[in-house]
Amino acid sequence: MKEKPNSTRTYDKDGFRRRAACLCVRDGFETEILLVSSSSTPDRFIVPGGGLEPDEDAETAAIREVMEEAGVKGKIDRCLGIFENVERRHRTQVFVLQVRELLEEWDDSKSIGRKRKWFTVADALEELAVSKPVQCNYVQLLANKTDSACCLPVAPESGEGATLSLRSSSGSGANASCGCTSGQTSNNNTSTNVLDDLAAESTTT
């Protein structure tokens, strides 16, 4: 994971790093996704995203990250959910963004030679299975467009037995706090309701 100069990590009340990412789709059919080359393995492609800055909300961070990493301008369509990686101790709020403009040059293309490439959903799943298995869950949920319960096991990443859960709420009020409308719930009934926590944090800061 690339650390940006002078960046400050932010954490939720459970000690998880707060992140945001976007599945950048070409159009409303959502059959093609824009991925970016990995900073650590340039021949592999990943979903653009990164950490929230202090006093920055997840949607703002997601838009900033795709501009920096992919040179993308677009419109957030919806929140897909909050994905938790227990081993790496971070929670990533993932949005679906419809691409409106692709810049010829952008921050990471100039600073580290980052590339971008369109993938079909099937090809994106195949690529991410190698480069970033945890991110397959984002694309799979987009492809399924289902309201099924979603504690999602993933393949180990970099030798780690990573597990990932999608945490969201069945309550309409909490879903509205991140733009989610699917009413997805975690299979773990004792787990923390992350969306409620984020909503509570926003009202107390």
Automatic annotation (TrEMBL):
GO terms for cellular component: cytoplasm; nucleus. It comes from the Eukaryota. PROSITE patterns: NUDIX, NUDIX_BOX. The keyword Metal-binding applies. It catalyses: diphospho-myo-inositol polyphosphate + H2O = myo-inositol polyphosphate + phosphate. One of its GO terms (biological process) is adenosine 5'-(hexahydrogen pentaphosphate) catabolic process. It holds the Pfam family NUDIX. Gene3D superfamilies: Nucleoside Triphosphate Pyrophosphohydrolase (3.90.79.10). It is an enzyme of class 3 (hydrolase). InterPro entries: DDP-like_NUDIX, NUDIX_hydrolase-like_dom_sf, NUDIX_hydrolase_CS, NUDIX_hydrolase_dom. Transmembrane segments: none annotated. It is found in: Cytoplasm. Residues 16-143 form the Nudix hydrolase domain. Belongs to the Nudix hydrolase family. DIPP subfamily. This is diphosphoinositol-polyphosphate diphosphatase. The lineage of its organism: Eukaryota, Metazoa, Ecdysozoa, Arthropoda, Chelicerata.
